[in-house]
Design goal:
Protocatechuate 4,5-dioxygenase, Chain B; eight-stranded mixed beta sheet; two-stranded antiparallel ribbon
Length: 252
């Protein structure tokens, strides 16, 4: 069993309170549920929860979701999978075992980028199972090519995909808008190599560039096109002069 690591910090650890929080966020949505893949943020629900709800709500109904997160600690395998049953305050969610030569089993304890997506999925798709995949990312050519291969591999499976990533971190809003714009242009082009290059060259603090790269490869294989569904930033909640930015991007 993989028990919650960030309940009561990133989201409510109380089942009833969490259900009320999710109900409030989903009740505001009028988006179509027609996406096969999404990019969804993974900050605390107070900051990015509404944008994450837009992302998850836009997904087509499915019984299997691959959730591509990142290893913020940089301690785990480069490409990791977890096959435990995961638990959140809303209950347990089972995993699906995928056979792949480049996915290594890992407990993912302490990592939030996958965990915070689960209550949204449980609320929206109560019977769904998950495939948690975590990336220990780098800007190496080998890592980039492996992200492309993983996207191709997942595109052949009967599943939908959630790429977990926040965008610019702790920069002035105008800087974030300019730098995010460079990244969004590469996402619109489904350009994995360009994504890596523009983030590295401009020192853009997109934390989940690996998961995004997997989503772009997945979308390219399936002829999906990206659409920005919703965006927000931490300055909407608390003004400090610096923001973290969040995007819900669908691929359909």
């Amino acid at each position: 069993m993989r028990f919650p690591s960030v309940a009561d910090s990133f989201y409510s650890g109380d089942k009833e309170n969490l259900q009320l929080q999710l109900k409030a966020m989903f009740s505001k949505l009028k988006t179509k549920s027609d996406c096969r893949a999404v990019i969804s943020p993974h900050a605390g629900y107070t900051y990015s929860g509404q944008t994450a709800a837009f992302a998850i709500n836009s997904l087509k109904p499915s019984d299997r979701f691959a959730i591509i997160g990142l290893d913020h600690s940089s301690m785990g395998p480069e490409f990791a999978i977890n096959t435990d049953t995961w638990e959140t305050p809303l209950g347990q969610i089972e995993t699906v075992k995928l056979k792949s030569p480049f996915l290594e089993e890992d407990d993912m304890i302490g990592e939030h980028s996958i965990e915070v997506q689960l209550p949204f999925i449980q609320y929206r798709f109560p019977k769904a199972k998950i495939i948690p995949i975590s990336l220990n990312q780098s800007f190496s050519e080998e890592f980039m090519e492996s992200c492309i291969e993983l996207g191709r591999f997942l595109s052949k499976e009967k599943l939908s995909l959630v790429a977990s990533s926040d965008f610019s971190h702790q920069v002035p809003l105008k800087v974030a808008e300019r730098k995010d714009g460079l990244v969004l242009e590469k996402i619109k082009q489904l350009d994995v190599r360009g994504l890596f290059q523009v983030i590295e060259d401009n020192k853009i603090s997109v934390c989940g560039f690996g998961p995004i790269a997997v989503a772009l490869s997945f979308a390219k294989e399936l002829n999906l096109r990206p659409e920005i569904i919703h965006s927000s930033n931490s300055g909407n909640v608390i003004e400090t002069g610096f923001v973290v930015t969040y995007y819900a991007i669908g691929f359909k």
